[in-house]
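In this section we walk through a basic example: taking a raw amino acid sequence and producing a predicted 3D structure, encoded as discrete structure tokens. The instruction is simple. Fold the sequence below.
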Amino acid sequence: MSYDRQVSRALDDEHRANIALFERVERALAKSSPDPAEIAQFAGALCRQIEQDVGRHFDFEERELFPRMTDAGDGDMAALLAAEHAAIRETANALLPLAKRAAGGTLNAPGLAELKRHALDMIERQVAHIQKETMALLPMLDDLLDDDDDRELAFAYAER
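The resulting token sequence is shown next.
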């Protein structure tokens, strides 16, 4: 889908990058005996995704976009997305230390099983959330934001 607003395009680009990472993680974890080097590589990328997306991306949406949705009469959707953020943050908090250990090559077999469980949960939650934002939030921004707001928010988001 193509978006008119810079903010929508930036968020969509991040969503697409996250989906690509999640596909890579799922493929690696689906193997009967995952390659430790591959695990370390995706774990490092997963750490960056969690620290970037679950922090910066979610905070931006909650601070700048969800209030605009609520003001426009879509408070139920904003509340649903915020609740999903909270659930994803909880999963991310459990996953991040495991991913850091995996990236450092210090994760044992039981830790790998726990990493797999939390990573697959995170992926399931994130993909469903991204789909909702793609169908509801991003198209709505084309109507909610004028050119000045879009430019201001795009710059603010890029600086974080």
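Looking at the output, two observations stand out. Residues 69 and 77 are 8 Å apart (CA to CA). The chain has five helices and no strands. In the next section we compare this with other chains.
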